[in-house]
Design brief:
The protein contains four helices and three strands. By secondary structure, it is mainly alpha-helical. It has a single domain, classed as Orthogonal Bundle (Multidrug-efflux Transporter Regulator, Chain: A, Domain 2), CATH 1.10.1660. It has a three-stranded antiparallel β-sheet. The protein starts with 6 loop residues before the first helix and ends in a 16-residue tail after the last helix. The mean pLDDT is about 80.
Length: about 100
């Protein structure tokens, strides 16, 4: 059974979630300070899954750098900015369709 929060507590819960993710990213950042992160590292940095990263790219929230060797990289400064603004919720991606290969 999913608990629903009162609207005033929902905002607080979202802010706490944002702060928690930011602190986790700072912890990851303390381990390494790279300009670009791989998809796996970006997922760990944001505490999200691969599909969420792909949705962010499709929604033009972050850029990706695809290399000739097939690797994909993401700019750390864009990921930090995204955390500071607040990660979009899954419902914000409802209309985004990722094309299949």
């Amino acid at each position: 059974m999913k608990k629903t929060l009162l609207p005033e507590f929902s905002d607080i819960a979202q802010q706490l979630n944002r702060i928690e993710k930011y602190l986790q990213s700072l912890h990851s950042q303390a381990k390494t300070e790279k300009e670009y992160l791989t998809t796996r590292e970006a997922c760990q940095f944001l505490c999200v899954g691969r599909s969420y990263i792909h949705k962010l790219v499709s929604a033009c929230r972050i850029d990706r750098l695809k290399m000739d060797n097939g690797r994909t990289y993401y700019r750390t400064d864009q990921l930090k900015a995204l955390i500071e603004k607040g990660l979009p919720q899954e419902k914000d991606f409802a209309e985004i369709v990722i094309p299949s290969k």
